[in-house]
Specification:
alpha/beta; six-stranded mixed beta sheet
Length: 222
């Protein structure tokens, strides 16, 4: 059985500023994104991962580099899992695009959407599913990490869950989250885990309850 881990890249300044980078070159991880990438690289370093694939985009390659360094593996290019080509919307803010007539289609009828000068969600889903199935067929008994982007991940997961394309926006794919997809015999596919986030984004442990008779105060003095 082949198992693919779909890992979204770490945070960029475009993410926190509400802008859509699309395939714009020169969009690296920011400081938080590098910490996220380091955390997911640490979380997965004990996994028996045999191969690492990545979208050609800089932010995905940079995120993959932390795990690749930990495991001593080469990063292999997978053009089919690259970011969405949003065409004329590249570099624009979400607020700007939300004021267009097309935005209602993005949110409520994404199966009908074609980005002006770019791709359709249906086309993105077809290419990423084809790439993932090819990777799984290439490594039928291996655990493989694939570093990619939010919409491609959500579209792939929707496909393998047999969700309607118009419902894929309901799924989450946070920065440096991991989705697990098993490819079994006779075309059987399962998606046991979605949008798992490792490292510093996990909720912190609750503080210990104060001890009676001034135990907490004594601990501070010590």
């Amino acid at each position: 059985m082949s198992t693919l881990l779909l890992v979204r890249h770490g945070e960029t300044d475009y993410n926190i500023n509400g802008k859509m980078a699309g395939r714009l070159p020169g969009v690296p991880l920011n400081e938080k994104g590098r910490k996220q990438a380091e955390a997911v690289g640490e979380a997965l370093k004990s996994a028996p991962i045999k191969f690492i694939y990545s979208s050609p985009m800089e932010r995905a390659q940079e995120t993959a580099s932390y795990l690749a360094k930990n495991l001593g593996l080469e990063i292999l290019d997978a053009p089919g899992i690259t970011e969405t080509d949003i065409g004329d919307w590249t570099g624009r803010s979400v607020k700007q695009c939300a004021r267009t007539k097309l935005w209602d289609t993005v949110i409520n009828r994404p199966g009908e959407l074609v980005f002006p000068g770019g791709e359709s969600f249906a086309g993105i889903q077809q290419r990423i599913v084809a790439e993932l199935e090819a990777i799984a067929a290439r490594h039928p008994e291996d655990l493989v990490a694939c570093f990619t982007h939010a919409d491609p991940i959500r579209l792939a997961v929707a496909h393998f869950l047999n969700m309607p394309l118009n419902s894929f926006q309901r799924l989450g794919a946070d920065n440096c989250s991991v989705c697990v997809i098993h490819f079994g015999k006779e075309g059987r596919v399962s998606v046991p885990k979605i949008n798992l986030v490792a490292g510093p984004l996990w909720p912190e442990k609750a503080p210990a309850s104060p001890k009676k008779n001034g135990g907490t105060a004594r601990a501070k003095k010590e």
